Amino acid sequence: MPESSTADPSAKSTPAYAALATRLRDRILSGELQPGERLPSDTELTAEFGVGRSTIREALRSLASQNLILTTRGVTGGSFVAVPSVGHISEHLETGVALMTTADAVTVDQLMEVRNLMEVPAAGMAAFRRTEDHLDQLRASIFDPTDAQGPETFVKNQEFHLVLLRAAQNPLLELITAPVFRVLSKRFGRDHAPEGFWQCVDHDHRAILDVVAAGDSMSAMDMMRRHLDHLGGSYRQMDKLRTQ
């Protein structure tokens, strides 16, 4: 009987390894296969999906390239569902955001809009939820713009914002916001900084630290909003210089 004309035309063109990788990926993302759990053996996959070992190897390579599984060798080796971490997933998001920015698919204003949506409430939460360890880390990230050199100011600035996100104690805030922050900082944080930029950053960071340490949530949100407004203006200025 002839195949229905409504059949998915892409089904035939999808390589067998890609189809298998998609099926396994769906099981991982649905939770059917849990983090740390061993994937079915080659023999089991062959029996279930009717594919050869070379197809299975390619499918597992594809999943590994997406950091969904880890493969180990030895007697107790095999392929296991990766245990997720905020830092690891955030790195992948950063790559995507950086590519979109490079391709001019998103603007500086759009990136700053996301930061406002996330970092302003995060600062408020940090004022309630921060620990003494968070405060120590924030203090350690404060720098003197008259003494600090270029790379040091960049690193300290990044650390302040990342610690503040962690102090909110919601891993999704860091996961979503950190990539946007790092893309902006790497693109504009080193070059073309207008006069007084780092002095302004230092002043704002010290003010935010004071209100977070005092547990003043409303002031923390207000200070962060002002800080991001200052950054947004500088980034727009640097973006114009970069494209000239």
From TrEMBL:
Name of this protein: DNA-binding FadR family transcriptional regulator
PROSITE patterns the record matches: HTH_GNTR
Record has Transcription regulation as a keyword: yes
Single GO MF descriptor: DNA binding
Domain HTH gntR-type span(s) in chain numbering: 14-84
Cited SUPFAM superfamilies: GntR ligand-binding domain-like (SSF48008), Winged helix' DNA-binding domain (SSF46785)
Keywords on record: DNA-binding, Transcription, Transcription regulation
Statement: the UniProt record of this protein carries the keyword Transcription: yes
CDD domains given in the database record: WHTH_GntR
